[in-house]
Every structure is written in structure tokens, then in C-alpha cells.
Amino acid sequence: MFIDRAKIRVKAGDGGNGVTAFRREKFVPRGGPSGGDGGKGGDVWIESDEGLNTLLHLRYNPEHKAERGRHGEGSNRHGKDGSDAVVKVPVGTQIFDAASGDLLFDFTEAGQRYRAAKGGKGGWGNSHFATPTRRAPKFHYTGRPGDDRELQLELKLIADVGLVGFPNAGKSTLISVISAAKPKIADYPFTTLEPNLGVVDLGDFRTFVVADIPGLIEGASEGAGLGDRFLRHVERTKLILHLVDVSSISGRDPVSDYEIINRELANYNPELAARPQIVVATKLDALDDPERLASLRDRAAADGKEFLEISAVTNQGTKELVSVVARRLEELASNGVDPVEIGDDQ
Fold it and tell me: pTM, whole model, 2 decimals?
């Protein structure tokens, strides 16, 4: 199950208490204070792991606590520090403060760490307070409490290419043809209920990652259909493939579909409207009115967008599509486009 949102509570360990103690050993007539300090409480760390692709494990395990520090002991023995707790998350996870909504950290690569809760300091034992005029202090400090906070975690998939379009535009079929991904494919709307990732092999150890975004409809930017729950996954992509069904089966106008999806992208985040986009006419095998294809081609040309025609079912045009996408990604890379830098203000 793909879960891209989870709220968790992190509690760092409290510091251990110091202790009041005095040396009472044989042959040590004036032993003096010997209370040890308490140990530091453990921290809670959040770490990105490339082996994860969902927040499912946190949905059902929302509380994470580090170990508290042990109390000090006599003979100036320091309490043991508490062990840290580590919470693993997928690359692409963003951490927000649940109360204020502030973005605290954004994991953009594997192995990054963020200290979500700091452990409390251990209290001082009475040996810390001995002075020439106060030789037998009978007090100590207690340990300080560790941080305790609620965090909202949100996952944004990191992919080179994002597939967008109306339900049943052929996105899942395309990603199953050009990559090893095996999404659910069926002849009804909203077959895809969660994003799918596929890796396209270009040979010579070159690849790019494609994200199949669940179908969008008018009003998606305001939550209609699957809504903005999945629109945020487009934000990290370098290139958008806008798939439009040109067959008459859908009963919709291709140009209208094209305009609606672009409008929803712009309403959600104006930067998405300016993202490099290739318009892809799909289902050529079922095309029964060439005028539908021609009108969409003219509309894309008017917007200055590259236009391609494919049939994923018959593989018509799919190799050319992969080649064009690879070329565009190389051009973007040479221009220094980073998918993580775009749309991170959302």
C-alpha cells in the first residue's frame, strides 16, 4: 500500500538525575561529596533510506521514543547516556511541524539525517557544587526533559519524468511498456489510485525514472477527484509528459482535456505551468477522427510545446518517445535544472 502522509510523535529521552552522595570509605576520613552526574537522554533522528518508497510503516507506528539517560551514582559514577532512536523514511520525504506547518527538513538523497528531537541534558551530582566554603553540598540537579513534538511527514516522489492527464489517458499502459513497472490497467476511470514509479533503461548504464500520477480531473487543484493529494508528486519532476486521449472512446474533446489539465497544474503551482512539457497524443490505434489529432497538434504548437503521437498498445511511437525524453533530459541536465529545486515552496 502506498501511503504518502503520516503524522508521528517523537519523544527524546529525558536526562538522568544527578545524585547526592558522600564518600564513606575506610581510611578516608574526609571523603567529601561524590555524587555523579546523570546521563544525557537519547536523540530521535530521522534518516532517509533508498530502500523505502512509502510511509506505510509509520502510519501504524506513530510514536518513537529514545532511551532516557540513567541516573548518576555515588563514587562519582556518571549515569549512562540513553540510546538514540532512528526513524527511517523514503527519499523525497518532507518534515513539517504539525503545529505551525513550517517545513523543517527535506530529504533529497539517501543517507541524510535530521535530529527531530534532542535529548535532555543530565543533571549534575553534588560533587559539582563543592567549593572551599561549601565542602558538603547536599543537593543535586535533576535531568532536563527531552524534546517532545508532533511531526507531519509528506512524501513527494523524486522522478525525472511525470506522466499527467485525465483518467484512462493511457499513462499506466505507457509506463508498463517503456519500463518494468506493472501498474494495474483496466478500462475504467481512476484505475490508478496511487503513483507508480518505473525505471526506463536506455542502455550503456543510462536510465531515467518515470512517475505515473493518478488521473486528474477539472478541479483537481482544489481537491476534486484524487485532487492535490497527488499533484505534489509532479513538483519534483524535471519534465512533464502530458498524455491526451485522441480517440472518440472517451467522449471528451482532446483540446479541452489538454487545457483543463494545464489549468489545474497552474492553479496548484504556477511553476508547474512553466515546467518543460511534451504533449503526447495517445491511443492512435483507436483513432477514428483524424481531426481530433490535428486540432490537438495545432493547440500544442500554439503553446510552443513539442508534440508526439503514440499507441502504447501497439508500441507505435514509444521508442521515439523514449529517445525524445532522453534528449530533453540531457538538455535540462546541461542547463543545470534540478527537480528538487523546483516547487519546494509548496
Answer: 0.70
